[in-house]
Amino acid sequence: MKPRRTFLSRRWLFLSNYSNTFYPEMGTLQPAFNAPRNHPGYHPAQMTKELPVKIWNSIPPVLKNKWVFHSLFWAMALVIYSLLEMFLNHTGFVYTMSNNLLRLLILGAAVYYNIYVLIPRYLAKKQFMGYMGLLLLVVFIISPIESLLIFIKSDQVPEMQASIVGHLDWSFLANFFALGTSSVAKITVDWYKNLREKQEIQTETMQSELRFLKSQINPHFLFNTLNSLYALTLKKSDKAPDIVLKLSEMMRYMLYECNEPQVLLSKEVSYISNYLDLELLRQGNNMNINFKLEGTISDQHIAPLMFIPFIENCFKHGLGHHLAKGFVNIHLSVCGQQLDLLIENSKSENMPKQRHARSGGIGLVNVRRRLDLLYPGKYNLDIHDNPQTYIVNLKLSLDS
């Protein structure tokens, strides 16, 4: 079901301009992925952007009903205003309540006319002069009517009639202030609702995109591994059972662990180790593979399958192009929540030109996009394509 749109949602251009005019910081406010703090998509700057949604979610459901909320608001206004007037003017309860009920009925009609007619038709379309003119006209209409009705009602209280006549200017100012306050409240409420709707839409879009990116990685790796296994079975190689065992462990990780937003870094490192063992079994003595782990891995978490596109790229598009003797050097340094991955592989100087887009090129595009989505502003990725080597250096701040 599509989220309900307010009039400012349909006229977001007006709201953006209005925000830039009066609240410059709102102009750069980009709703973030509304993820929990332990989610890989959470970013410290998200805290301030989550505030409107947190406030809205903290409101009891019954108060989110428009009729209930408005009824309670006007009832509270009637009671508070009446008690204040009784204390200042020393008037009776029934008389004061009836006067204020009459005032609020007239003012309420003007407030709802302002909210549902004047603001959508004029203020939302940036017709400020027309809006202010009509708002003043409403004030000049309701103020004399309100004063006249209370004057007639107070025929038995001459001092109250004298007070009404002597304070007509205050009646105009009070009504103008009330209508102006209703305009500010309407704009603020619609901004909160619009921001909440945008966050919900962005959350759904980002989750869908992440699922799509991850779904591209898994079949891509499986396709390459099955090709290798098929080649070994044709040769009746003794290495085939070991490859099947390693593949089984890796597939178990991919099927049951990688569905979570984050996995233990230790499991991701184990997955990489299995992958390299599988490649070493497949390649034999044709390459030199070195994997060095530095630092302490304890309870750090990371988004699953974040490194495998880089490592897979070493074998498929580096050593895979008829290189007699090659190497892959992988150095992973972990210091607390800071991670530094350095991958260097040899490649042929005469790389064959691709007439068509290679199927493996999808991996590096995916991992860069996933980094943008899951670790915005928390990573640095450098790739150097040299004549004889290909170097990838990823520095990443893991979520604490």
Folded structure, characterized:
With 400 residues, the protein is an alpha+beta fold. The protein has 2 domains: 7-200, no CATH class; 237-397, Histidine kinase-like ATPase, C-terminal domain (Heat Shock Protein 90, 2-Layer Sandwich). Helices cover 62% and strands 12% of the residues. It is built from 13 helices and 7 strands. The protein has helices at residues 7-10, 12-22, 24-27, 46-58, 66-89, 93-121, 128-153, 158-166, 168-234, 240-256, 265-283, 308-319, 362-374, and strands at 263-264, 287-295, 301-302, 326-335, 338-346, 379-385, 389-397. A 5-stranded mixed beta sheet has the order 2-4-5-7-6, covered by helices on one side. Strands 1-3 form a two-stranded antiparallel ribbon. Strand 6 (379-385) and strand 7 (389-397) form a beta hairpin. The model is unreliable at 1-49 and 354-361 (pLDDT under 50).
User: What is the helix content?
Assistant: 55-70%
Strand order of the largest sheet: 2-4-5-7-6
Average pLDDT, all residues: 75
Count of beta strands: 7
Radius of gyration computed on alpha carbons:
34 Å
Largest beta-sheet details: 5 strands, mixed
Order of helices and strands: HHHHHHHHHHEHEEHEEHEE
Query: What is the straight-line distance between the termini?
Result: 35 Å
Describe the global form: rod-shaped
Number of helices: 13
Which segments are poorly predicted (pLDDT under 50) over 5 or more consecutive residues? 1-49, 354-361
- The fraction of residues assigned to DSSP E strands is 5-15%
